[in-house]
Amino acid sequence: MADPSSRPLRILTWHVHGNYLYYLTQVPHEFHLVTDAARSPHHSGRSGSLPWGDNVHEVPVERVRDLPFDVLLFQSRAAWDDEQHTLLSAAQRRLPRIYLEHDPPQQHPTNTVHWVDDPNVLLVHVTPFNALMWDNGRTPHRVIEHGVKPLVDVSYQGGLARGIVVVNNIDQRGRRLGLDVYRQVAGQLPLSLVGMGSERIGGLGEIANAALPATVAAHRFFFNPIRYTSLGLAVIEAMMAGVPVVGLATTELASVLRDGETGLVDTRVERLVDGMRALLADPGLAQRLGAAGRAMARERFGIDRFIADWMGTLRSVTA
């Protein structure tokens, strides 16, 4: 088995969530991303506008079984159920395996058994909430909370007396991602909607990764209308810039924001609307909430802690 202290590990994985993958590749190992000719979903490699490091490599699907790796890092059910068997050799399937689960259960919120049913695989959850809600069965699991390394150094301005919402394809993702909540609030307050496909319902469309932090920081507050998801990286990224965050007190966000101290959080949309009106009327209040949220986010979601957690996890599975 590879000794992580002797050389960087060779980790095979897939491009599932771009920003998360970028933060993960700050870990000082070698990451090899499965690609195909069509650059199809989860096979897009070093795609997008993220500043990928020299430790991030692409591996065409037809070459995967011929290359040496030390760890297999699965991030989707398709990779686990199908590609594990079609792309990998028998010897590769005996390598240390980690399944990185990005989401809470999508079917029943408490009674869904995770499909990774193997005591020889480590299941990694990105929030304590997700780990609590999944039935992890006999598979050992642990939590590695998000870590964020801001792409650009921006500071909160808040001069634009509007809130900003960042959700991809919100019009196609319905109540779970809070389409109805967004529409309810947008009918009462000025909101800018950003994200892939947002132009279909009057939003600003997708904004490049490097430009998004300044766009968010120009707004008075960040509003997260999502009912049920993992803890969105966009929320943490906004907090890192000192932007006050307003959101529903559901899933992990309820443990991240302290209402009236590090942000505004509640299950009553009308109360959140009242809070957003207060932020629009009082820039000083917004500045204070944003600064407190920034201090908390830097302590809990700093990239150094994230790297250390992943380094320890990789050492444990390759020991």
CATH class of the largest domain: Alpha Beta
Please report the total strand number as a whole number: 12
Strand order of the largest sheet: 3-2-1-4-5-6-7
For the record, the CATH architecture of the largest domain stands as 3-Layer(aba) Sandwich
Structural class: alpha/beta
Total number of helical segments?
Answer: 11
Total individual domains: 2
How far from one another are the termini? 7 Å
- Can you tell me the residue ranges where pLDDT is under 50 for at least 5 consecutive residues? none
Helix fraction, binned, reads: 25-40%
Give the DSSP E fraction (strand runs of 2 or more residues): 15-25%
Largest sheet: 7 strands, parallel
Order of helices and strands: EHEEEHEEHEEHHEHEHEHEHHH
The CATH topology of the largest domain is what?
A: Rossmann fold
Overall 3D form: globular
Radius of gyration from the alpha-carbon trace, in angstroms:
20 Å
Arithmetic mean of pLDDT = 96
